[in-house]
């Protein structure tokens, strides 16, 4: 039982981190219509900034720089590349993003090389034990911080003028512009938010039990793609809930791999996609996909 | 002469840098006035408003000549969101409220350019003052409001920015006569509060009532203009836009001979049957949209469903077409129980429908949209079509011919090669009806078939519908607010109000029913 609860807690905390990444995918998609396949390298850029600056200026200042830096990187990608596409269709933009991802990843790989950079977080390799359940401190902090971040996001989108304008622009950008919402602003805000969230997630994905910042970190954002799709592409709540589902299922699949041996090794990497496909078979628009309140 | 607030000079607009939508259009709006632009569907009215609000590019249009000045400044280099800050706000055609946002959030978006907190608070108060119905439903999602409330929300949302000039695109579209009057009153109040209004209206009676000055736009050019009272008195305007019956509904069938339609559609192999709606009740959560409604559409007749916005008319059509489930009660078409079938099986019974909020494939051509309607009747399978086998090709040719005949009947043949997104609202309505007809139904459900059409056009549509009905001997159930159209076309009318049936009978009976006058027709019928 304790083993199960440990795996469950592990999965929930991992799921919250995936949620941070998946929400970034959602926000970029709803604010600019782009399938952001460069999200992974933005995440890695943020984590790289933190790891390389934490020595000289300390972890907290480095974390702030990393988060802001990733946000700025997102805004730049949007302003310099996405907005200048002659024909803004989702396919072109998605392929452009794949290109951006390769360029960024190549440069970061050149800089990092074969090293694994320590993220230098104060929680280090500590663990917390409560009632027999043991979790890395980094995961506990990540879970708490993610919940706070999601609360702030809710406040932004439900209570502030800027957030409501972003939702309006996501629903109907033409009409939103007629009401004075500036699409360039809502787009920039979306990319900035997504970049910042990715950097936060990157810090925790590079913390214990992971060894540190390595180029493979960019790949870990792909684990959030099933969560993004499962949640319904354009739903922030969907992304969070699906992140949790994928996190828990992955953790359980890894934790009980011995018992699930007949399914083969490496089940943890396959299971998010299997869950995604199964759910999409039943609910083609995802768990929280746009089902408007409509009078036909 | 007062200073002009807005001057449009020799304006030309083209779509996709090819289709010329406006040519040499000039008009002016003086400070503190209400100006109406009248014209049939497709005349370029919406294009004109979009040129002024700088929102043409999202529909692939561009100003190709002339100029627009607002308060003496040229608008050439501005974008839509800058126009709002300059003081021009547009209420777009079809309302375009944010359906997933609450009423209050919709208004907040409208006020997003107002930085001053107190000014924003005052704007809220003013909007809720003008539209008490919105204040009651401030936490409801926009998509769940009735058509009339949505129009109020769209206007309220625009007023949140306290514009100097309000652009209104068809505020009466799809609204019941009484609601149209109410919107007219509200426009007068908005004007009285010092906002100038440029109004586009299909409903010329309403447009001329509220405007000081009016222009008539036809096929992209201004053909007449003058003070509203003078224009309203000219014979041409009376005939084309006001119609004889617009103030006192009369059967127009008596006036016009049934037109001879040089088109022969394949008569459906099956015959129309009786449609029986019995004790139909539909609830959404706690909201009862229809309660114990019963009526019968006899085979081969035209039956109309009328009533104020929010009366449950579209809900009723949606149940008949299978989009909504009945909470209780039954609907029978002939011997088949419609309420027990999924929507594709209902289509199989020979029931086809059009939608109130048009649902066509926007990127596809008109022809392809009509072909979709033929889908149920095509026999060649996917593989056969993909391989382009002779039989499949022959069938496709035959189908295209049928589609052309349907298009000719509805007068949209010239549009067959156009993509739907380039069409005006009224033309889209025709395409929708064509798609429904293409399925060769025996029962046709039409949801507001002439919304967005001028009087003359709706009369032509009535003729087309009557011709189709006689040619194919099908039953038609239609929902519509255009009273001359309904009274001239329908053989029987059922009136709904707040989800209940309040009257049924022939057009003459219904027009004299005091209950109907009170709930729906108001003074428009007096």
Give a quick precis of the structure.
The complex is a heterodimer of chains A (296) and B (526). Chain A is mainly alpha-helical and 296 residues long.
SSE arrangement:
The complex is a heterodimer of chains A (296) and B (526).
Chain A: H1 2-32, H2 39-57, H3 59-81, H4 90-112, E1 127-130, E2 133-136, H5 137-159, H6 161-171, H7 173-178, H8 183-205, H9 217-220, H10 224-231, H11 236-255, H12 267-282
Antiparallel strand pairs in A: 1-2
Helix pairs in contact in A: 1-5, 1-8, 1-10, 1-11, 2-3, 2-4, 2-8, 3-8, 5-6, 6-8, 10-11, 10-12, 11-12
Chain B: E1 4-15, E2 19-30, E3 34-38, H1 45-52, E4 61-70, E5 73-74, H2 80-86, E6 88-91, H3 103-110, H4 117-130, H5 132-136, H6 147-159, E7 165-169, H7 177-192, E8 196-201, H8 204-210, E9 213-218, E10 221-227, H9 228-233, H10 235-242, E11 275-284, E12 287-297, E13 302-306, H11 313-321, E14 328-333, E15 336-337, H12 343-348, E16 351-353, H13 366-374, H14 382-386, H15 390-409, H16 425-438, E17 443-447, H17 455-472, E18 475-479, H18 483-489, E19 492-497, E20 500-505, H19 507-512, H20 514-521
Helix pairs in contact in B: 3-6, 7-8, 13-15, 13-16, 15-16, 17-18
Q: Could you describe the 3D structure shown?
A:
The complex is a heterodimer of chains A (296) and B (526). Chain A is an all-alpha fold and 296 residues long. Chain A contains 12 helices and 2 strands, in the order ααααββαααααααα. In chain A, strands 1-2 form a two-stranded antiparallel ribbon. In chain A, helix 5 packs across helix 6. The longest helix of chain A is centred in the first third of the chain and has 31 residues. The C terminus of chain A is likely disordered. In chain B, strand 17, helix 17 and strand 18 form a beta-alpha-beta unit. The longest helix of chain B has 20 residues. At the A-B interface, helix 6 and helix 7 of A face helix 2, helix 3 and helix 11 of B.
